[in-house]
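Reminder to self: keep the SMILES exactly as supplied, no canonicalising. Ligand is zinc ion.
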Amino acid sequence: MMKCQTVMDILERLAPKKMAEDWDNPGLLAGSPQQEVHKVMTCLDVSIPVVEAAIKESVDMIVAHHPMIFKGVRHLRTDLYDGKMFQMLLSHNIAVYAAHTNLDIAEGGVNDVLAQAVGLEKIESFVITDAEKGFSLGRIGYLPQVKSLDEFVMDVKKGLHISHVRIVRGSNKPVRKVALCSGAGADFVSKAAFKGADVYLTGDVKYHEAQGAVQQGINLIDAGHFGTEFPVVQVLADYLTAEAAKMKKDLEVITDNISQDFFEFC
Ligand SMILES: [Zn+2]
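Structure tokens returned for the bound complex:
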């Protein structure tokens, strides 16, 4: 058993809240730092199916990537989705903690996990969020050897355990230097081109951003918001398990194994 505060402290060491972007809302979103935690579930999104699974598994605390509250809560109507979800959480004494852009930026967080999953080396910062401290969203790195775009696409699919990606062929050159940003990173296509990347890997790309990639001569891989972020769910669970073991504390950590990408290919 651990206090919720102790689990929060462990997460704070990995991804300090002060790293987060101003608009973000990381931290404890439900529950109390004083409550006891025996079992944690890590996930990308807190949803009713995830909370149902947490209840079934006797989970005391959910650690999510996406905060389920951003703006002021105007009501807690239990006939609507969010209110119903909060009622389920609170009535089962389940705390919720979110590590969002702080986990994107943190060393060993979402972007580093993504960079490692697709085989990058010599990983550097990409979109600087704090020049003094060297914080950045996304990463730039290099493949161990030059590959064709199609070979790299195979590596991405294998590394992220996904069946499909969308690609934009903006260049015929082979691929060595890769820029990436997990989740919704389509705003940074020009930045990736400016930094001289051969390919930019992200999620949530729309038509005009694809057009921009072609015009700027950079290849684009859209591996999906879910696809580029989901690998961190297991890494978070492994991290919490390892830290609890170091402290000789009993803490069971499971991952959300029911959530899938909302998008299907047919
Ligand atoms: Zn995201």
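Points to follow up:
The chain has a mean pLDDT of 97.
The chain has two domains: 2-100+229-255, 107-223.
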